[in-house]
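URGENT: need a sanity check before tomorrow's submission.

F., can you look over the 3 beta-hydroxysteroid dehydrogenase/delta 5-->4-isomerase record below? I want to be sure the sequence and structure line up before it goes out.
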Amino acid sequence: MSSSILVTGATGFIGRHLAQRLVHEGHSVRLWVRDSRRLTPDLRVLTTVVGDLGDPDARTRALSGVARIFHCAANVQTWDRWEAYHAVNVEGVRELVEGIIAQGPPFPHLIHLSTMDVYGFPLTPCDESCVPTGGEFGYGRSKWQGEQIVREQCRGAGVPFTILRPGNVIGPGSQFISRMGKELRRGVLMTLDGGQVHAGLLYVDNLVDYLLWAAKSPQALGECFNVRDPGEVTWGQFIQDFKRALDGRGWVIDLPFAVADGLAHLSAGVLGRLLPGEPLLHPLLVRLFGRTCGHSIKKIQTASGFVGAVPYPEALKRSVQWFQIEAA
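Structure tokens as predicted:
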């Protein structure tokens, strides 16, 4: 892999882990972030461009001379306005791709991080031949629109690209682990219909392995891949294992999907207009815990030969250890 690499979103969970791995492997890494104060101390020594994706000056400085771009920057909030998702996940992607094209060839290889949420939480697993809808929620819809921009504009201009759609990423620094851990310690967490649906978990270091593979493999060029860890870990199993590892005192309540879905729509609709902030229960979380996240990973397993270097028990252990330190 070339040593001339740009990482966007390095203040975030996945971007930080990726940047740290690249540095550890000896690459020359440039970061593009909105707020350099949020970088971890080990990344503050790197060449850093500060600015939004829509900032022309920042874009020129960030893109100049790089051979590969890992685009990890995104609005990943579970509860936000459509305008906020659209600004980063759609218009930000458009501005990035247009900036790449404007610089002219030779073009860098763009590795674009999307999400399995583009499938919209269907009843049955999808492979990459399924046509995404983006679903009914702002995050998934905006990420699907961003994917379309990458695919259409990059193909039209001859920019090499790869799209990865990760599942639910866990590991040290995961907001997902932090939120669930707090509830399992002394709060309330739900399962739906016995917690039997696939959780679609992906350990962050395994995702970084796939990102690095995508950046150097000819088989990845112009392709889109679902990414999660192998195995059939359900939400019920994951929540039980997490609670046991924490010796948590929180309540785990199981609800029928239809009941939880009705309560979530009420909470996000009527109550959402009366109370500020994210509702305690909203439809996205019900879909997340009640519909499969176990989408097919046969394509990326066949192309890469990977099976996930960090297995589920070790991934859970490392995630819990980080949470216990953070929560102490």
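My own read: The mean pLDDT is 94. The two ends are 40 Å apart (CA to CA). If you see anything odd, call me.
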